[in-house]
Amino acid sequence: MTVPQANGGVVVNGSAQVVKGPAPLDASKTVVTLAENLKAVPPAEELIFGQTMTDHMVSVTYHPVTGWSNPEIKPYANISLDPACSIFQYSTSVFEGMKAYVGPDGKPRLFRPEMNMQRMKRSVARIALPAFDVDELLKLIKKLVAVESRWIPNVKGHSLYVRPTIIGTRPSFGVRASDHAILYVICSPTGPYFRTGPKPVSLYAVGEQVRSWPGGTGEFKLSLNYAPTFWPQQLAAEKGYDQCLWLLGEDQHITEAGAMNFFVVVKRDDGDLDVFTPPLDGTILPGLTRASVLRLTVAHGETTTLPNLAHSLKLHTSERRITMVDLFSWNDAGKLAEIFLVGTAAVVAGVGRVGFEGRELDAGAMGPVAKALYERLTDIQEGKVEFEGWCVHVDDA
């Protein structure tokens, strides 16, 4: 038993010892305890996003005196917490969404995980949770995915969703940063995020309630950003729409849709296409799928050709403010080619209807640009196409 002391030392099994500062997160000290009885892996067609968990999890704790404990990979289990913990009282929680795939070589791989780690580092700093080396966390994630590799569906559009999470566990009502924490990682095999098949997503534009605001936390992946969106989402569903389209400001400019980044494709007079997405102004989450889509559209016709798009077709990609007036004006002028959403869970989803102040815009089905991006991204993720080293093998420690 380890007991922290006021002088910065600890008592270990009754013997006083000196600790030179809090211990850093160290993946090399991982203790692995495998489950005695493994669950049956459900058929891929039965998977629903986030409902099935794998056999094991990563768990590490932080104490302000001793620092990070030795990481554990252990059987998936409940977490016991003090009712006064800051996660319950002040929503001190950060998470990331990642995916693991099986490549043609049969080995598991992660898609651009370094971007998830850097975003998690920024989010943890934003709410002053205990810091850690994200490179060590990535090593832990690789170890866990290797252990759980049998859970990775080898089916197009399917993957093993990986969710690293850190929660503040300081057992006090005191209104200040949590200096105690639990860092854990869990996994869930998943199929398509939207279970509507080829049917495009419908959006209801919401301006009365906002998802984020200037100077707020919209650009960070914090749990507290999600709960306030649930009630407006219910209102959108009552009106017959799948997701909210989040607006902001007097000009009613678009930020995100649901929990995804928003893209619009507009026809140019010269036959080329403009691909627009709102800029990262602090109110929008910097999605790694968003960054990947921007890179692929810029690369089209230069270093790669997107599936079923002419090599000569120019995609003029830019980040710009998009208002509802813009959207309806492009539609009325016959220039609106397609609307699509991107995110880790859905990858790329086409948008059909958009409802706004009693009007409705029909953007059709999933357009050729969205289809091309979906095909290319999933082919890269599944190792069928190599592009700029985006996939990282789990055994590359």
From TrEMBL:
Gene Ontology molecular function: any one: L-leucine-2-oxoglutarate transaminase activity
A single BP term in Gene Ontology: L-valine biosynthetic process
InterPro entries to which the protein is assigned, alphabetical: Aminotrans_IV, Aminotrans_IV_CS, Aminotransferase-like, B_amino_transII, BCAT-like_C, BCAT-like_N, BCAT_family
Residues modified to N6-(pyridoxal phosphate)lysine: 221
GO cellular component term of the entry, any: mitochondrion
Record has Amino-acid biosynthesis as a keyword: yes
Source organism, top-level taxon: Eukaryota
CDD domains given in the database record: BCAT_beta_family (cd01557)
Keywords assigned by UniProt, alphabetized: Amino-acid biosynthesis, Aminotransferase, Branched-chain amino acid biosynthesis, Pyridoxal phosphate, Transferase
Cofactor: pyridoxal 5'-phosphate
Catalyzed reactions: L-isoleucine + 2-oxoglutarate = (S)-3-methyl-2-oxopentanoate + L-glutamate; L-valine + 2-oxoglutarate = 3-methyl-2-oxobutanoate + L-glutamate; L-leucine + 2-oxoglutarate = 4-methyl-2-oxopentanoate + L-glutamate
Pfam families named in the record: Aminotran_4
EC number: 2.6.1.42
Similarity annotation: Belongs to the class-IV pyridoxal-phosphate-dependent aminotransferase family.
Name of the protein described by the UniProt record: Branched-chain-amino-acid aminotransferase
Organism: Steccherinum ochraceum
